[in-house]
Amino acid sequence: MRFMQALRTTLYTSTCVLLATQTTMAQPPYPIPDTGQSRCYDATKAIDCPTAGEPFYGQDAQYIGAQPSYTDNGNGTVTDNVTGLIWVQTPDLNGDGLINIDDKLTYEGVLCSNARIGRI
Fold first, then answer.
1. In this structure, are residues 119 and 112 in contact, taking their beta carbons and an 8 Å threshold?
2. Domain parsing of the chain, residue ranges
3. Using one digit for the tens of pLDDT, what is the confidence trace for 87-117?
4. Which end of the chain has fewer CB atoms < 10 Å from its terminal CB, N or C?
């Protein structure tokens, strides 16, 4: 019993020390567009953005990422210029004004769309 309690205490302490020492963030291997978040928050409300070492430091509002940028491809799709992803502008793919099962693409349809817009 004492062994398990000591093990639990050691694991908890080690985990807390490990988490407390991990203050740097790795650079992601792909670009991430900025969210535009400009406010910082504690557990319940908006606060002034904390400085390093203070509780709640490291929030999204404290980092500036690549600003969102999009290009309308003129064919019903939009390219995210930061990530290179291509999105349809509307899920109403057949243009009937409804979004339902008739708007789904088959595997072959996806392949044809990719070929039509330049092979993504």
1. no
2. 33-67, 70-116
3. 888 888 888 998 888 888 787 777 776 544 4
4. N
